[in-house]
Amino acid sequence: MKKTIGIILAAGRGTRMGENKMLMRICGYTPIELCMRAMEESCVDEIIITVTDDTARHVHDLPCTKPVKTVLGGETRGESVYNALCAAQDADIAVIHDGARCLVTPDIINRSVEEAKKYGSAVASLPVSDTVRNFENITLDRDSLRIMHTPQAFQYELIRDAYEKDGMHTNTDDCGVFIQADGNPHYFESDFMNQKLTRPSDIAFFESCIHRRLGQMRVGIGEDTHRLVEGRKLILGGVEIDYRMGLLGHSDADVLCHAISDAVLGACALGDIGRHFPDTDPAYKGANSVQLLHRVMTLCRENGFCIVNVDATVTAQEPKLAPHIEKMRENLSGALGVDVSCVSVKATTPEHTGPEGNLECITVRAVATVQKIN
Ligand code: MG
Predict the structure, then answer these.
(1) From ligand 1's centre to the CA of 312, what distance in Å?
(2) What is the pLDDT of residue 15?
(3) What is the mean predicted confidence (pLDDT) over 306-333?
(4) Which of these, 87, 84, 107, lies nearest to 169 by C-alpha position?
(5) How far is the CA of 223 from the centre of ligand 1 (A)?
(6) What spacing in Å lies between the alpha carbon of 290 and ligand 1's midpoint?
(7) pLDDT tens-digit profile of 206-246?
(8) Which end of the chain is more exposed for a tag (fewer CB within 10 A), N or C?
(9) How far is the CA of 233 from the centre of ligand 1 (A)?
(10) Gap from CA of 61 to ligand 1 centroid (Å)
(11) Radius of gyration of the chain from Cα atoms?
(12) 226: CA distance to ligand 1 center in Å?
C-alpha cells in the first residue's frame, strides 16, 4: 500500500528569533510538537521531520502514535526537503510543511492530501487583501497575487522529480520548485490563522490563537483529604511547613498537589491519581507529589491539552498558611509548566467545625481549566 508522507521542516536557522525557534514554547509546546500533533490527527500515515543536532534530541523524546523518522536538514530549505523526500519509502503523496507554521490544523492537512490526490498538487495559499506596493512606489495588482502557505502536497513522483531537476535549491517553497519543473500547481484556500512564527513577539499572538479555539476549553475538579497525625512532615504544595503534626499517606501526602492533580486529570478525562500512581505500588512510597504533579502535566500534554489555570482552596484550622502561599504557587507553576499568574492557592479556616476544624485532617478542593490544542 502506498502511503501519505508528512514532512515537517524543522532544520531552519530562524535567525530573526535569536535562538532556535523550533525549540521555543507556545502554551508549553514547541512548534515541532504542534505540527507533529496536527499531522498525527490527520490522514498522514508516516511523519518525516528534518532536524538539526539540537532538534533531533527533542524529536526523539516526543510521543507519537504514527511512525516518525528524522532526517538531517541540508544547507538550504530545498536541500532539507530533498533529503526528506529521499528518505520516504512507498510514498504516494508527500505533504510538505514548514515547522514554523505551527497553528496548522489536521483539517488543512487533510484538504491538501485530498486535493493533491485529485489534481496532482495542492498548495495552501491566501488571496491578498492588503494594498501591496514595492520600493519603486508601484502599487501591485493584488488580484493577481496570492500568499503562499504550507502545507503543500504533491503526488510523490512529481515533486521528487522536480527537486531532482532543481540543482540550485534556492526556491523558498516547494511550489516554486514544482513550477520551475513545468508543473501547474493547484491552489486551495489556507486558513488565516496558519501563520508563520517569525519574531519573538509572535509567541503571544500564537498563544492567544490557541486559547481562542472555540469549544476546546475543559474544566476539572479535584478534592482530597489526608489525616493529620504526629510524627509526619507537613508538606503542602511542595513546601515543608514547621508544625507539630503532619499528613498521613503513602506518598509525602501533599494533599494540595493531589487535589490539583485530580483537577487536571479530570479536565482531560484521564481518570484520577489513584489510577496513575496507585498507593499499593511501592514505587510511590514517600513519593514527592510535586514530581507526580509534573508527570500529570506531562500526561495532559501527551493527550493534546495545555493547562490554562488552576485554583485551589486549602481548608485547615492550623497552621497559618499565608506566609507559605507564594512559595507553593511557585512550586506548583514550575511543575505545571505555566506562569505563576495562572496558579492560585487560597487557605481558609473552618472555625473549629468539622473534622478539619478539630485538627483531624486537611482538605483541599481544586479546579483546573485546560485547552485542547488542536
Ligand atoms: Mg491524596
Answers:
(1) 14
(2) 61
(3) 97
(4) 84
(5) 9
(6) 12
(7) 988 887 775 678 999 999 999 999 999 999 999 999 999 99
(8) N
(9) 15
(10) 30
(11) 26
(12) 6
- For 271, phi and psi rounded to 5 degrees? 85, -150
Q: What is the mean pLDDT of the chain?
A: 94
pLDDT at residue 209, as a whole number: 87
69, 49 in Cβ contact below 8 A? yes
* Structure confidence at residue 170 (pLDDT): 82
DSSP codes, 222-256? EEEEEEEEETS-EEETTEEE--SEEE--SS---HH
Q: Where are the alpha helices (DSSP H) in the chain?
A: 31-40, 53-60, 77-87, 106-119, 156-165, 174-180, 202-212, 255-267, 273-276, 289-302, 325-336, 354-357
pLDDT for 215 equals 61
Task: Return the number of other C-beta atoms located less than 10 Å from residue 187's C-beta.
Answer: 19
- Asked whether 134 and 173 are in contact (CB, 8 A), the reply is no
Ligand 1 mean position to 334 CA, how many Å?
A: 20
What is the value of pTM for the model shown? 0.74
- Determine the distance separating the centroid of ligand 1 and the alpha carbon of 105, expressed in angstroms: 38
Please give the pLDDT value at position 16: 65
What is the C-alpha to C-alpha distance for residues 12 and 76, in angstroms, rounded to an integer? 8
Q: From ligand 1's centre to the CA of 255, what distance in Å?
A: 5
Ligand 1 center to 254 CA (angstroms): 7
The tens digit of pLDDT for each residue in 283-308 reads: 888 899 999 999 999 999 989 899 99
Q: Mapping DSSP to helix (H, G, I), strand (E, B) and coil, where does residue 127 land?
A: strand
Q: What are the beta bridge partners of residue 364?
A: 224, 314
> Residue 123 has which C-alpha cell?
498548495
Least confident of 36-40, 71-75, 169-173, 359-363: 169-173
Q: How far is the CA of 222 from the centre of ligand 1 (A)?
A: 10
Q: Contact at 8 Å (CB) between 310 and 263?
A: yes
CA distances for 368 relative to 239, 305, 329, angstroms? 21, 12, 14
Distance from the alpha carbon of residue 285 to the mean position of ligand 1, in angstroms: 12
**CA–centroid distance, residue 340 to ligand 1 (Å):** 23
- CA of 277 from ligand 1 middle (Å) equals 10
- Cα of 291 from ligand 1 centre, angstroms: 14
> Is pLDDT larger for residue 350 or for residue 20?
350
Confidence band, pLDDT 50/70/90 cuts, at residue 106: very high
